[in-house]
Amino acid sequence: MNPTVDQAPTAEAAVDISLQDHLAIEGxxxxxxxxxxxxxLEVRNLSTHFFTPDGVVHAVDDVSFTLGYGETLxxxxxxxxxxxxxxxxxxxxxxxxxxxxxxxxxLFEGQDVVTLPSDAMRRLRGKEIGFIFQDPVTSLNxxxxxxYQIAEPIRQHMNLPxxxxxxxxxELLSKVGIPRPKDRYGDYPHxxxxxxxxxxxxxxxxxxxxxxxxxxxxxxxxDVTIQAQILELIQRLSEEFKTAVLLIxxxxxxxxGMCDHINVMYAGRIVETGTVDQLYENPRMPYSWxxxxxxxxxxxIRGGRLRTIEGLPPLLINMPDACRxxxxxxxxxxxxxxxxxxxxxxxxxxxxxxxxxxxxxxxP
Amino acid sequence: xxxxxxxxxxxxxxxxxxxxxVWRDAFGRLRKNKLAMxxxxxxxxxxxxxxxxxxxxxxxxxxxxQNAIIExxxxxxxxxxxxxxxTGHFLGTDELGRDLFSRLLDGAQISMxxxxxxxxxxxxxxxxxxxxxxxxxxxxxxxxxxxxDITYAFPDLLLIILLSIAFRETVFGKALxxxxxxxxxxxxxSWVTVARLVRGQLLSLKQMEFVEAARALGVRDRTIxxxxxxxxxxGPVIVAxxxxxxxxxxxxxxxxxxxxxxxxxxxxxxxxxxEGIRWMRSDTHLxxxxxxxxxxxxxxxxxxxxGLRDALDPKLKGKQ
Lengths: 364, 320
Hints:
By secondary structure, chain A is of the alpha/beta class. Chain A has helices at residues 3-26, 29-36, 83-90, 118-124, 136-139, 146-157, 162-175, 181-184, 194-206, 224-240, 252-258, 276-281, 286-293, 334-338; strands spanning 41-52, 55-67, 72-76, 99-108, 111-112, 129-132, 212-216, 244-249, 261-266, 269-275, 344-347, 350-352.
């Protein structure tokens, strides 16, 4: 038979063996689970809609992606593209009413969280799925000490005596880089700066050693120097805790620095997905070009205007069967207005949703 | 970066030492409010009198000094008169020769227990109802708030009188010399304000992100309500119950005046007025001193409540 076909399985076997070796070295019970379920998180055809007086808002529309153990996946897009709603759906925190997960599966370690009873879901939150919110100022309760707030998920999910819980909190505080953690244990949120509070939020999210960390724009409310520190911290700790991260951001620069894989979302849909290299070297969707193009560059002319994508994302009510980006796209042709393209494979696992960049398309 | 953090550490500790908790801040503002402090001192004094009053009273409240009355020609002793000093009744006596000062001290015990017990009843009814309505919203909210509206619309005095009559002969009605019934009846008519306050607070607080953050950590609903929301809502509630104290004292006095509640020979400030009003033309002191006592308590608690409201208002933080 064809020798290339024969070779393919051998290559896979080699990968398997190296993975086995890796498991043997680590000897961690979490890695044993990695052998059982292939992916930590599998989102299949997820649709989350909001039933408002103006109509049904298709905030997340038929979204599918997977996230392996310990991987970092970026979810990138403008405001109102459904990034946050996707994350809220995974932790089943979509405000209901008006929001509802209308279809699809979210398999967390093979278990569908969409149909999970609410009490079982509650036990998953904070323990297996950590959440970092955008604004650390409003996400911490002003009337409780940060020690209490970090210990809360520990108290809720782990059966630890209070002395041990306190020790763990102090350890977490020092891990997230808060100086003199023992003294800060009893302090209130207003005694911390914005960056420090986000460190506290990270400590809370990681307090029960979760397998998945949902980071919803974790640096948007912070200034640029603090951003870098916080991102570095998330990256370092997620490696240390072997936590998979779903990083939501509108900043492709951040996503490039942090992620293995990136999903670009637009108007409730994934419009392009691929590894960081694929997406940056050969983006196959005009929206991704726009996002990349709107990043400021070092060689920009001083004082020149920042580039933007013209127009606004559409209202997600009564979407026509058309490419959702077509009103803002420079390459639009008739077919873009008549039929919505599918996500099609471009190379390996690089997929894009665009008529123009398909092999028979008009965009080179 | 490490060196930078180390150099930041000392200054951060200075900031931490200078700033203080919410309650200490509020207390600091309260201390600067002279009226409120006068109110607080008087209110505390009255509460202390409520506890130790009967012990320090010169006479037992029910003892009739008949010799003094006979000497005075069967008339109540006037306060500060020679005879009053000689017989040891410096605020005078009533027509039966009972020492007015001692009876006022005994009345302080009743009025102060009204002040406290009614507020406990108000809190135990008002906070859960307000919390449930605010947290769940929708149909639960609607139902609980209509019950609240009905309670609010129903004439207070009528309800209390009906309850008093209905339960008068039961164990509950006879407990604590009939006072427990009065306390509970007053409480049953005055929890509305607290319930509405707590509901309003929770309606706005449950939208806060820290609530969603707590949910995302898998915290139980009841823990979120009790540990995250109610402490944030407690300021206005403290103000409301402090300002509710005068109302309760007044309600008890009104009831005592129409003969419901404390039974003779015990006396509350209200029933002292009720007994004294017959002699008001000739012996004004029998009405005057209980009225002064009531007025003092009302003003003290009102000043304290107003001061607390200003002190606990986060918008005033840093001012004054």
